[in-house]
Amino acid sequence: MRGLSLFFGLISISAVLAAADLRPVISREAGKCAVAWEREDFHTIVAYMPARVVQRSGGRAALISELRNDFAQARSLGAERLEAHHGPPSIPKSIGRWLVSVIPVTAVVHSAHLDLTQETHVLALSEDRGKHWAFVLLYQATQAELDDWFPEFRGKVFVPTPPVPRVSIVY
């Protein structure tokens, strides 16, 4: 009988853990954020950023202006569109008042004759135990920047080194 109790206890614990798995929510929200990048919806992109990052980057208007300039510069160099795909989020871990998950991302910049593919990561953050998620693109972010934005993550969250971009010739 004791073995049966242990068995049902393990089943109920795994059911509770599965019910609390926030990865599908993170994935859905990351997908919405990726669509905003593909559509060049700068207001939505900034809305998905943590307030702390927005403030320390000069505010909403400054970030929107910077994004507009970055996309305009890419178009002037021949970029026609951006395509973003995300992989499975890591299991969220609690750091202070935050839930944190790292998501692998593949971004492809398409042009008339070349596709440029860059693999990177996004940091998913929630201050309200997973109800709302914000995202920090870690491409070209330094460890010092992340530690400045979130001192509580120092030594607990690391900026992965992105691989070299891949270039494909398109006919």
In short:
With 171 residues, the protein is of the alpha+beta class.
Keyword list:
6 helices; alpha+beta; six-stranded antiparallel β-sheet
Report on the architecture of this protein.
The protein is of the alpha+beta class and 171 residues long. The N and C termini lie far apart (69 Å). The protein has helices spanning 2-19, 23-38, 42-47, 51-56, 60-76, 143-149, and strands spanning 79-86, 93-95, 98-111, 114-126, 134-137, 166-169. The chain is built from 6 helices and 6 strands. Residues 6-19 have low confidence and may be disordered. Strand 3 and strand 4 (114-126) form a beta hairpin.
Termini separation: 69 Å
Mean pLDDT, all residues: 90
Tally of helical segments? 6
Contiguous uncertain segments of 5+ residues: 6-19
Shape type: globular
Strand-residue proportion: 25-35%
Helix content: 40-55%
Count every beta strand, where a strand is a DSSP E run of 2 or more residues.
Answer: 6
Largest sheet: 6 strands, antiparallel
Helix and strand sequence: HHHHHEEEEEHE
- The radius of gyration over CA amounts to 19 Å
